[in-house]
Input
Amino acid sequence: MIETKFKQTEIGLIPKDWEIIPLRDVAENYTGLTYSPDNVHSYGTLVLRSSNIQGFQLCFDDNVYVIMDIPQRAIVRNEDILVCVRNGSQQLIGKSAKITPEADGMAFGAFMTILRPKNIDGDFLLYVWRSRIIQKQIEEVLGATINQITNADLKSFIVLNPSPREQKSIANALSNIDNLISSLSKTIEKKRLIKQGAMQQLLTGKKRLPGFDGEWEKHKIGDFLSILKGYGLSKSHLVQDGENKCILYGELFTKYDYEIKTCISRTDSDEGLLSECGDILMPGSTTTNGIDLAKAVSVYESNIHLGGDIVVLRDKKIVEYEPYFVSAQITELCKQAIEQSSQGITIIHLNTRELRNVEIILPLARKEQLAIANVLRTMDNEIESLEEERDKYIRLKEGMMQKLLTGQIRLVEAETKQKDLPKAKAANVYFKRSVLAAEIADRLCEERTFGHVKMEKLIFLTEHLCHIDIDSHYHRDAAGPYDNRALRSIDSQMKKQKWFEAKKEDKGYRYIPMQNRGGHKKYFEKYYADSMPMFEKIIDTFRSSTTEQCEIVATLYSAWDDLLQSHKSFTDDDILNEVLNNWHESKKRISRNRWQTELDWMRVNGFVPQTENN
Output
């Protein structure tokens, strides 16, 4: 990372060496295909529409095919950017997806456009388009009533134009985290399908868990559960730090699965039916389809306030049951029966009288119900953990986009190269590196986390990130990149100058100030003035970090840099493999997830190695 000077522009502060230019200068845009119902068939040329963009990806679940002469302008090419420019919902205007090879040659509809990059990196343009920079311009065009972006609007939109090298670096960094998010999403979907298959087997008794046998019995819901209704409470009653926990019926659709682990809403109102441990909750109405009312959620906590339009199934103390198991049965196996028991046209209500007659099947032993529930809970927890990890990376990407696309973090040096900057006068390299170490010690010696090993890691990061040469020779060692000879020389020189003494204590070495503390500063300003912005950032960032955190970052940097120097393509997995398998056995004490998290953190904060060509 380097010091960046900024300039004010019509889209805000950007680096001084960046440009802003109209979109028309870096991309062509084309008008989509107009067709009539007579042109639509069950085969032919697929026409891409807004519904073919889901979650920033092309999706082919809802397709329209046409048979007609299609102008060349309405045919997409690989690497084009498909954009929705007109829609009844303003929220969908501007959503985008990159055209991939499988879509090459398809057409796109009249409410869409494609951006065909020229003189700009296509992936970089895609991220700029999705950034707040463009979204703000879209909002200004649409206003309160207009539901389209015109060709003239598109051409006049302002986009960022860093150097081609920096465009590529930014796009690569964001693409890497996108690939990680996509991989996690695919894993989550796979786990959900596995769970769905397990439920079909376990909830019907087709597959029995070890140690259980015997017949299952049919029970009508009304035979062993009373049916009650919540009352009162609406969104207006919610208070962030309210005295009472509460549940609104809409939350059963959106916030909870088969059980309520943590009640998310609170109120100061005393309204609502109070829950009892073992209650099963169902929504009382919907505006979609009766089958959606087959949603049951178990509660294991009493005295939660249950709002209006919540149907409450409560234990009659007749049949032993596990609430989670019954919730899953109702949700997964009773969809048709519940749909048939619903009534209404605009608003569809759950008919509680008919609900009493809906049948479910239960193992006679509650232990078997509980065992099945626990198997499914384990699957739930695994999926939930993956979802949390994915969401973490989504938030991380949002932060990366904000910082990378405004130049707050630079991944390559500006046009003024570090090698062109004035160099400090030649000095004895051993003295020079002891001056650097003395400044680090002067700033951090009071910190409880600062000692010998952390000093070594900070010297390593400073030397590499500030692009200075103090003749270190680092080795792959248990604690990370390590130059023991240089560190001994530093300790000796600082003690000789009476700046600091490295003194061994119970938990390792500490740097103790001596009578000439501060005497190094005139030399530090002389040798390292050009490196101050990054040096300050390193010190501020790692001031309170643990030794292990510094070790992780320094190790990742070193492995990453080694792979860059090999001039071969590599991935995050290659970096992690280098650390975990080609370094030192002690590195395996730290989980792979931790290494990956820190690698992503390094990108966001600009602590990444560079080569002459990237």
Summary: The chain has four domains: 19-161, 163-214+364-414, 223-357, 418-605. Residues 416-427 have pLDDT under 50 and may be disordered.
